[in-house]
Design goal:
The chain has about 70 residues and is mainly beta. It has 1 helix and 5 strands. The protein has a single domain, classed as SH3 type barrels (Roll). Helices cover about 5% and strands about 55% of the residues.
Amino acid sequence: MKKFEDFNRFKDRLVKIKLHIPIDKQKVIKGYIKGTEEINRQIIIKDKTQEIYIPYNNVAGAHLEFEFPTK
């Protein structure tokens, strides 16, 4: 995922994001894409406990994670 718009395109998908500067002492964040905030160019990620707002310019890399279907 390279463009800011890709995060809207893959909304509700599982993603792993590597950061330039840690957020809450985490350099890698894994969670579901909930959307973006256009004004501040932030990505909204929902992990197990909270929503995390990540500035797009802090993203070093991001890719979708594969999820095995559950029965």
